[in-house]
Amino acid sequence: TLLENHSYSDNPIRVIVEGNAKITAHFESKTYSVVKTVVVVDEKGDPLDGVYAGKILGEETFKDEDNATFSISLNEGFQLEHWIVNGDEDFKPTDKSYNHIMLSDLNLTAMISQKKFDVEVTVSPSSGGYTFLNQTRVDESFKLEDIDYGEVVEISAHAQSGYKFVEWAASGTNFKTKTLSNQSFAVGNNVKLNARFARSGLIELKILSNPEEAVAYTFGDGTFEYNPEHSILAIA
Predict the structure, then answer these.
(1) Measuring CA to CA, which residue among 232, 160, 164 is closest to residue 201?
(2) Buried-state track 26-55, b at ≥16 Cβ within 10 A, e below 16
(3) Exposed/middle/buried for 117, CB within 10 Å: 0-12, 13-18, 19+?
(4) Is the pTM of this model over 0.70?
């Protein structure tokens, strides 16, 4: 016998009707849960233990047919390789945001790797000197590949006889004082460095015109110390 104005969760339920009765069946959407896992792998794809690279953002419970959205929040120096959804190795989306229609419980794994960078060094002119990139001597150009994010690199410039070191031209990193021959920096991007050398002592500059009679006036020729800001002028 059912009590008036009472609810029951049994299904099925057996009722004995002894008079007028109103029985209403109430339904609600199924609820599904999400298990979120972050796995950091090395360059061979093997998991690395004890490395915290970030976390998956998104709710942990959803109703049936909800459109669930997840994203990855990464620490500096890490990148998303791909997602694994319910262990399906054939479906590996690579966008940082992943949408999923909830039809059952979800096991979502973010496969993360450490970012790798290159440091490239060139010398100009090559007759002016050489550099050391960590322990490697560089006479013209050299690229150090697959450097971990945050790894400290040391670079030094050494002038040949008759030359002097001028400065570092750098992209991907900043030097507070570009004219220091010895530098060190933590890698956070691909880096290109150029060690610039100049002849020591006086440099003779000649300004010529072709054809010779086409120029009325020139300015700036003579003998000077190295100066990359030296001005020249030619008036037709």
Answers:
(1) 164
(2) eeeeeebebebebebbeeeeeeeeeeebbe
(3) buried
(4) no
Q: To which H or E segment does residue 168 belong?
A: strand 163-171
SS3 105: coil
Q: What angle do CA 153, 156, 157 make, to 5 degrees?
A: 150
Largest CA distance in the chain: 124
Q: Are 199 and 160 in contact (CB under 8 A)?
A: no
Q: What is the pLDDT of residue 27?
A: 83
Q: Which of 146, 152, 144, 160 is nearest to 183 (CA)?
A: 152
Predicted confidence (pLDDT) per residue in 48-73, tens digit: 988 899 999 999 999 999 999 999 99
Give the DSSP letter of residue 137: E
Q: Taking a C-beta distance cutoff of 8 angstroms, is the pair 129, 165 a contact?
A: yes
For residues 137 and 17, give the distance between their C-alpha atoms in angstroms, rounded to a whole number: 96
Find out whether 78 and 52 touch, Cβ atoms under 8 Å: no
Q: Which two tokens stand for residue 154?
A: 């040391």
pLDDT tens for each residue of 130-175: 999 999 999 999 999 999 999 999 999 999 999 999 999 999 999 9
Q: Provide the token pair at 139.
A: 């006479």
DSSP letter for 212, please. G
Nearest 5°: phi and psi at 188? Answer: -135, 0
**1/24 Cα distance (integer angstroms):** 15
